[in-house]
Design brief:
Blueprint (H helix, E strand, L loop, with lengths): L2 H7 L10 H40 L3 E5 L11 E2 L2 H9 L3 E15 L4 E9 L6 H5 L1 E4 L12 E5 H7 L6 E7 L6 E12 L4 H4 L2 E5 H8 L5 E2 L1 E6 L5 H9 L6 E5 H4 L1 H39 L1 H9 L4 H37 L6 H4 L10 H17 L13 H4 L4
Parallel strand pairs: 4-9, 6-8
Antiparallel strand pairs: 1-11, 1-12, 2-10, 3-4, 3-7, 3-11, 5-8, 7-8
Helix pairs in contact: 1-12, 2-10, 2-12, 2-14, 10-12, 10-14, 12-14
Length: about 400
């Protein structure tokens, strides 16, 4: 029989003296609130990063092959498609999809409004999954036409500002690449989308790639960039380096992190906030448990003296109080998990906590928590709290039996 566990079990929180009982309850409450807050914080950060990253990837591909030049304007340099290089890209198992894109800046004009926009031209291989999911009206443009399609998607923000609806004609004016003469194109609003990402919604109109090829005087095998979807988003930097080694001399590759650094830098800052919360909550829970353990030892000084008199060594007595502390920690973690996962479930299904999408890119607080994250948080909380109690438990070695037996 494990006598240390047997004794610890019989001095469980429900059987402690009146002075220790409220202290134990405070310790359980402290651990519960700390773990609940940690679970909620981690779930929110993972949810934010996944939701916003998914939106970014859905609209702008993780990797883009672009011409190697110093052009930073919206007037793109033509990229001539090389069949040999495309074959290399298609053979890479980490690349799941290849599509061709071009962009051209222009001015959208209605009867009483003008707005600077960017026409994003896409080909028939473009994946519409993300935009189809975020359509608020109309439908996806039909690009399977003999002539360049005039159907376009515009954002809800632009539609509201310019008072446009599905089926309305719009005229966009473009400036020639080598001159001041403007060219107009009459297009038709086929659908209205809303991503929640201000950088996209305030600027982009989605249309036929052939329109931009015709405006720029490009051939059918010339595009603005080659957009690549990848199998593992976490490995895009390594994949970009791998592709760069085999890329033609006049091309380069750009990751989505380089295209939109401000958004991804903001997401990375969220990790630092979670680390601060983790450290603070662990310190609060640990210090509370240290205080609780000291009070329990002091209140059981007589018991310590009796056990030492009967021949128990310091290590065995320390184990008794560590068993008791582990019980308190486990009980606090039970309630912490209940609170934390309760918040996760309610927010995940009912979206109680709302946000301003213009500031946070989402309309509610997103939450996401994997089983591995949940287990690591629980194991880490239990281990850290228990390890912090090893040093204060050494106080038992200073208790002298003759004095302890006279302790009141």
């Amino acid at each position: 029989m494990n006598f240390e566990y047997f004794i610890a079990k019989h001095i469980a929180p429900g059987r402690t003296e009146a002075f220790a009982k409220p202290v134990v309850r405070i310790a359980i409450l402290s651990i519960a609130l700390g773990l609940a807050l940690i679970i909620a914080s981690v779930a929110i950060v993972i949810g934010f990063k996944h939701s916003i990253s998914s939106k970014m990837i859905g609209f702008a591909s993780p990797l883009q092959v672009i011409p190697f030049d110093r052009n930073e304007s919206m007037e793109e340099t033509a990229l001539t498609l090389d069949p040999a290089f495309l074959k290399v890209l298609a053979s890479d198992p980490e690349i799941t999809h290849i599509q061709y894109v071009a962009q051209k800046a222009g001015v959208l004009k209605t009867k009483d409004q003008m707005q600077g926009v960017v026409l994003k031209g896409v080909d028939t291989a473009y994946r519409w999954n993300f935009l189809r999911k975020n359509l608020v009206a109309g439908q996806i443009p039909d690009l399977e036409t003999e002539k360049p399609s005039r159907e376009v998607l515009i954002s809800q923000r632009l539609a509201n500002k310019l008072r446009l609806k599905v089926g309305d004609p719009v005229r966009i004016w473009f400036v020639r690449a080598h001159g001041a003469e403007a060219m107009g194109r009459k297009l038709v609003v086929e659908g209205i989308y809303q991503t929640g990402i201000e950088e996209f919604d305030k600027r982009y109109i989605i249309g036929d790639l052939r329109q931009i090829q015709h405006l720029n005087g490009w051939k059918s095998n010339q595009v603005g960039s080659i957009a690549l979807d990848v199998r593992n988003f976490k490995q895009i930097k390594q994949l970009a380096h791998k592709i760069y080694e085999s890329i033609p001399y006049n091309l380069t590759i750009q990751t989505i992190f380089e295209s939109y650094p401000e958004i991804f830098n903001w997401l990375n800052l969220l990790d630092a906030n979670v680390v601060v919360i983790l450290v603070l909550m662990m310190l609060v829970a640990g210090i509370t448990m240290v205080s609780t353990l000291f009070i329990l030892i002091l209140e059981r000084t007589n018991m310590v003296g009796i056990l030492k008199t009967l021949g128990a060594n310091n290590f065995s007595i320390r184990k008794i109080f560590l068993y008791k502390a582990a019980y308190i920690i486990a009980w606090g973690m039970f309630w912490g998990n209940l609170l934390g996962m309760g918040f996760y479930w309610v927010q995940n299904y009912f979206h109680l906590f709302k946000l301003d999408p213009q500031s946070y890119y989402v309309s509610y607080v997103p939450v996401e928590l994997h089983l591995s994250d949940f287990l690591l948080l629980n194991i880490g909380t239990f281990a850290i709290c228990l390890l912090m109690l090893i040093i204060p438990s050494l106080y038992i070695t200073r208790i002298i039996p003759s004095r302890a037996l006279r302790y009141e």
